[in-house]
Amino acid sequence: MNPNDEKDIFQKIIDREIPAEILMEDGQCIVIRDINPGAPVHVLIIPKKNILRLAEVQESDVSILGSLLLMAQKFAQTHGLSKGFRVVINNGPDAGESVPHLHVHLLAGKPMIWPPC
Ligand code: 5GP
After folding, report:
1. Which residues line ligand 1 (CB under 6 A)?
2. Each residue of 36-64: pLDDT tens digit?
3. Of the residues 16, 17, 36, which should be mutated to test ligand 1's pocket, given the most ligand atoms within 8 Å of the CB?
4. pLDDT of residue 4
5. Ligand 1, from 31, 35, 41, 52: best to mutate by most atoms within 8 Å of Cβ?
C-alpha cells in the first residue's frame, strides 16, 4: 500500500475495480497490456502483493520476484517473441517510475537500442 493508504491503479486492476486487458494471470501476478505502449508489444507483469518498488522488496519476496521473470518468459514463449524481448523495472523518479506498485515492463516487436537513456 502506498503511504497515504489509497489503492494504486494497479491494485484496482488486480481487484477488478477498474478495467484492463488482462492477458495472463497466476496466483502471484497478472499480465496486462500497457495503456500507452512504447513498442508493438508492451505488457506489464504486476505482482498481486502490493510491493511499492524493487527498492522495497524483502527476502521473503524472493518467490514473487522469480515468478515475475518466469511469467515474462512464459509470455514471450506463448506470444512467439523469438526475435527478442526486453524486460525493464523503473525504480524511483530518476528512472521514470510513475506507478508506485512494483511492475516489470516487457517490450518487443521491433529492434531496440541500448542504452535506453
Ligand atoms: P512506470 O513508469 O511506473 O515504470 O510504468 C507505469 C506504466 O503503467 C506506464 O507505461 C503506463 O503507460 C502504464 N499505465 C498507467 N496507468 C495505466 C492504466 O490504468 N492501465 C494500464 N493498462 N496501464 C497503465
Report:
1. 9, 20, 32-36, 44, 90, 96-99
2. 999 999 999 999 999 999 999 999 999 99
3. 36
4. 58
5. 35
Active site residue 103: yes
Query: What residues does each domain of the chain span?
Result: 9-108
What confidence tens digit (pLDDT) does each residue in 2-12 have? 455 789 999 99
Q: How far is CA 9 from CA 4, 13, 57, 59, 92, in A?
A: 14, 6, 19, 25, 17
Q: Is the pTM of this model over 0.85?
A: yes
Q: Could you tell me the CATH superfamily of domain 9-108?
A: HIT-like (3.30.428.10)
Cell of 60: 521473503
Ligand 1, closest atom to CA 38? 10
Burial 26-60, CB ≥16 within 10 A → b, else e:
eebbbbbebeeeebebbbbbbbbebbbbbeebeee
